[in-house]
Amino acid sequence: MVDLETILPLVLPGVVILLWYLRTRHRLTVGRLIAVAMFAVYLLMVSSYTIFPLRFDSAYIEAFRSQTRLLDGVKLVPFRDMSLRYLTSVQGWGNLVLGIPWGFLYPFVVPVLGWRAIARSGACFSAAIELTQLAISVLYGFAYRVTDINDFLLNVTGVLIGYALLRLLALIYRSLSRRDPRDANPRSDKPWGHLESVLLAHGRSGVASR
Prior knowledge:
The protein is an all-alpha fold. 68% of the residues lie in helices and 2% in strands. The protein has helices spanning 4-24, 30-50, 58-67, 84-87, 90-109, 115-140, 149-177, 191-202, and strands at 74-75, 147-148.
């Protein structure tokens, strides 16, 4: 069985090398590197929830192949089975919560503005999860994970909630600080410099949705 703990000794050095590369070659500020590190931790947690563990026990695989069809784990009709019971289950609210950090953290990693850009990135993120789950099920030959359009919709909804929280925090910060976005210095090497520049950029009323 392969789980997150199994691959951490391989992944963590890779994250450190990535941060070093971004710092030395792309001159990312300390604040943005911290955001990238936090985002990497978030993605590892997402993989633990949506992908791992992976089992390679032949007896286990054969047993499930005889009991479960591959198509049983593919649900492509929106809102079917999206009952109150589903929404209050771990799978339901879990998929909603899973998307919130993406909507909140993504603008600190990638310089984007507007809910449409965030929604597109979140849709690609969620689609990648569902397609990976489908690919794993195809390789196993049975429905190891459920590929569900409702999970996708909840993920994207969570992403938009996360971005709404960021906008709210940004508006509060700009109102209290009375800072103008032009005063921010995104190239400042102080951790707060990058954080402040993102908050001021997203704290403007009528942020462009591109």
